[in-house]
Amino acid sequence: MTVNRRTLLGAVATAPVWGALPFRSARAQAANTIRIGVLNDQSGLYRDISGPGSTQAVRLAVQESGITQRGVNVEVVEADHQNRPDVGSTVVRQWIDRDGIDVVVDVPTSSVALAVNTLVREKNKVFINSGAATSDLTGAQCSPNTIHWTYDTYNLAKGTGGAMVRAGGQTWFFITADYAFGHALERDTTAFVTAAGGRVLGGVRTPFPGTTDFSSFLQQAQRSRAQVIGLANAGGDTINSIKQAAEFRITRGGRTKLAGLLVFVTDIHSLGLEVAQGLVLTETFYWDLNDRTRAFTQRVGAMPGNLRPSMVQAGCYSGVLHYLKAVADMGVAAAKASGAEAVNRMKAMPTSDDAFGEGSIRADGRKLHPAYLFEVKTPEESKGAWDYYKLISTIPANEAFRPLNEGGCALVRS
Amino acid sequence: MAEGTIATAGGIAARHEETGLWGFTKPQAVAFLLMLAFVLVSPFFLYPVFLMKVLCFALFACAFNLLIGYVGLLSFGHAAYFGMGAYITGYAAKAWGVPPELAILMGGATGALLGIPFGWLAIRRAGIYFAMITLALAQMVYFFALQAPFTGGEDGIQAIPRGTLFGVFDLTADLTMYWLVAAIFLAGFLLIHRIVHSPFGQVMKAIRDNEPRATSLGYRTDDYKLMAFVLSATLAGIAGGTKALVFNIATLTDVHWAMSGEVVLMSLVGGLGTIFGPVVGAAVIITMQNYLAEFGAWVLVIQGVIFIACVLAFRRGILGEIAHALRVKL
Questions:
Q1: Contact residues for B223 (Cβ-Cβ < 8 A; gap 6+)
Q2: In the predicted model, what is the mean pLDDT of residues A248-252?
Q3: Chain A interface includes B150 (CB < 8 A)
Q4: Domain for residue B20, yes or no?
Q5: Which residue range(s) make up the domain with B105?
Q6: Stretch A232-240: mean pLDDT, rounded?
Q7: Looking at beta carbons, which residues of chain A come within 8 Å of B47?
Q8: Smallest CA–CA separation between A19 and chain B, in Å?
Q9: Does residue A16 have a cis bond before it (omega within 30 degrees)?
Q10: Cα separation of B152 and A383, whole Å?
Q11: What value does the mean pLDDT take over residues B91-114?
Q12: Are A173 and A142 in contact, with CB atoms under 8 Å apart?
């Protein structure tokens, strides 16, 4: 068939028949409706750790909060920010100005998260961030309307850097992506390594973006004879360096360990145990950690693509559950009237859920819970699907995150 | 190209070309009044921030179209001027507390200052080489933005204040900001229209259609190309600066090569070489990005399908096809 103007126009003319497309119905302006907007990456790099799975987790939280039985309606909408701050910012503005969204959830990608952080504060709504890594959200750019739920770069650097030295990784070599994020990760981790009595033997900066061949950097790392090679990079860079390290068999024999500073369980799943075995990493949630996390994983069901929940998705569940508890406590009208008040109420209440156990929220908006240092199992050790991690050590909640007075958050000083 | 047929078919209209207000032909005047009416009325029933985004990108696409549509130079690095305009405007407004009108002008100046050396280098070659040189230079700007401390790396410059215009109008109100953006857009649009219909613009079009002939007539074509390049870069910088104030952010997205691709897409969808085409193209693409955000991953697929459809069947773009069907020049 030739494509010409006539066929295309014909196709467009039949467009109304495509009405099966899920267009959203007009919103009803009910005063006792809480509206939750899940904003994340549905098409790119972070789809697996957040994406539609986060919405699924949020829906479970709504269902389990029991708030709908008290006559409160809860609407959940989702959107793709395409990892672009301007798209994310436009969506959130429209959500708040036009659709009456009360709380924005998830938002991976630091630049988008920081833009949403400013916007939500200006409009006095609630922002529960689960997906972004930047510790600025509870530091220099902290806001009375924002809670940073799941993890941050400081937390990961401390977990992997500090706990790893105590577990025997005394000497380090860094492979660092050459941009602000990589530098920050290397700097923070170095501080924890030296504080715990370890030594950094050296490091190498890899051009970013665009480095696909890490072999020479890995060989440099190997020659340094360091016990731990720290990967201060993210996304595709991390994946590539782990794969190539496996090809060079760097971690076989157990003398050298590879430490990922921003790696998620879904990355391990796509890499496979054959490649990822021996990698050391920090997460704050793992589906197979204990009975409660297994129960949560059971209830939330398989994530899109038949994945198990990531810590980001678990954070969305936990954050929304706690928010709805605060709403039930203070009343829908009060919660809708002021986002800052709702966040204050959330800070005043202890948190408890199956994904993260017992926890609390600090004045600067930092949610506190334990972090865990894991090592990826070998294929022989793994007993079944998604049996990926063995626990090396647990970092208690009061040590897992940056101390309150070190973040430079204005809310703390006042 | 279809230009020839349009020119003969619209021969009668063309005779009136220079007599109308601002050099508009009758159909163009109608189209301009329609656009003006839309710009004036739309904020009362459409979402102003969305409209501001459309207007910023419309100005950006018009600036790009000045180069491709009227001089025939395909720049693949316009994100550099757009993005650096956004960064400098944002930095000036945030760190130095510069008032918004001055900050936006600084964005335009940034575009011009980048455009002079980049244009000077790039116009030495034509066609694919020109496109590649502009892309290479734009990538250098991208890496600069990634590494320079003042841009905030991948976090970008956040929380840029909109400030008060002339110390009188508080721009934090969306509608006030909208009128500023609308004024900037209309001024830029009319400037481009004026450039295109000036004697300078006639030379530009002569270079596009037959450069050796323009040279043989005694024009220093390189000078004209450079001037058009710098004008285009300046307007792109202004568009970027305005966008930075609207959204309070300036990030790597604005300097990324995908942004250069997006502006090509907007011009193609709207209609290359038509004065209103890029405006329509920008509106279509931005509307898709915004209203289809709910469909998640499908946005990019839909965008791709529309692009393919345009290239296969509507090669003149939306406005180009309409103009062709009505036998007028838009």
A1: none
A2: 82
A3: no
A4: no
A5: 3-11+27-326
A6: 87
A7: 93-94, 97-98
A8: 14
A9: no
A10: 45
A11: 93
A12: no
Nearest-Cα residue of chain A relative to residue B51: A90
CA distance A6 to B135: 36
Is residue B43 assigned to a domain?
Answer: yes
From chain B, the residues in CB contact with A42 under 8 A are: 296-297
The answer as to whether B254 is a domain residue is yes
Domain count, chain B: 1
Place B330 in a pLDDT band, splitting at 50, 70 and 90.
confident
Cross-chain Cβ contact A181/B154 below 8 Å: yes
Long-range (24+ apart) CB contacts under 8 A made by B20-27 are B22/B190, B22/B193, B22/B194, B22/B197, B23/B193, B23/B194, B23/B197, B24/B193, B25/B328, B25/B329, B27/B323, B27/B326, B27/B328, B27/B329, B27/B330
Q: Do B155 and A52 touch (CB under 8 A)?
A: no
∠ CA B233-B237-B238, rounded to 5°: 120
Compare CB distances from B47 to A52, A98, A178 and report the shortest one's residue: A98
Of B247, B294, B313, the CB nearest to A89: B247
Residues 6+ apart with CB under 8 A from B166: B99, B101
Residues of B with Cβ-Cβ distance to A80 under 8 angstroms: 293-297, 299
Q: Does B154 contact A179 at a Cβ distance shorter than 8 Å?
A: yes
Do the bridges between strand A199-206 and strand A228-232 make them parallel or antiparallel, or are there none, so unpaired?
unpaired
Rounded to a whole number of angstroms, the distance from the CA of A330 to the nearest CA of chain B is 31
How close B13 comes to chain A (CA, Å)? 28
CB of A166 within 8 A of CB of A196?
yes
What residue in B sits closest to A184 (Cα-Cα)? B153
In the 8-state DSSP scheme, what is residue A263? Answer: -
CATH code of B236's domain: 1.10.3470
Q: How is B220-231 classified by DSSP, letter by letter? A: -HHHHHHHHHHH
Biggest CA-to-CA distance, chain B: 58
Tell if the CB–CB gap between A110 and B300 is shorter than 8 Å.
no
Asked if the Cβ–Cβ distance from A114 to B294 is below 8 Å, we say no
* Phi/psi at B96 (5° precision): -100, -5
* Contact by Cβ (8 Å): A247, A253: no
- Over its C-alpha atoms, chain B yields an Rg (Å, rounded) of 19
Fold of the CATH domain A33-151+291-369: Rossmann fold (3.40.50)
- Asked if residue B76 is part of any domain, the answer here is yes
Amino acid at A383: K
Q: Is A115 on the interface with B (CB under 8 A)?
A: yes
> Distance between CA A227 and CA A219 in Å, rounded?
14
> Are residues A180 and B293, on separate chains, in Cβ contact within 8 Å?
no
Query: What is the strand order of the sheet A126-129 is part of?
Result: A73-80, A33-40, A103-106, A126-129, A146-148
From B249's Cα to the closest Cα of chain A, the distance in A is 7
Residues A295-342 have pLDDT tens digits of 999 999 999 889 999 999 999 999 999 999 999 999 999 999 999 999
Residue of A nearest to B147 (CA): A179
Q: Residue with structure tokens 């944002």?
A: B90
Mutate to test the interface with B, among A3, A111, A142 (most CBs of B within 10 A): A111
Residue A35: both structure tokens together: 């509206």
Between chains, do B313 and A181 touch, taking CB under 8 Å as contact? Answer: no
Q: Which residues of A touch B153 (CB under 8 A)?
A: 179-181
ipTM of the complex as predicted? 0.72
B142, B247, B299: best to mutate for the A interface, most A CBs within 10 A? B247
Superfamily grouping for domain A154-283+371-400: Response regulator (3.40.50.2300)
Q: How many CA atoms lie within 13 A of B263 on its CB side?
A: 36
Q: Where are the domains of chain A?
A: 33-151+291-369, 154-283+371-400
Q: Residue B17 burial (CB < 10 Å; 0-12/13-18/19+)?
A: middle
Q: What is the pLDDT of residue A212?
A: 86
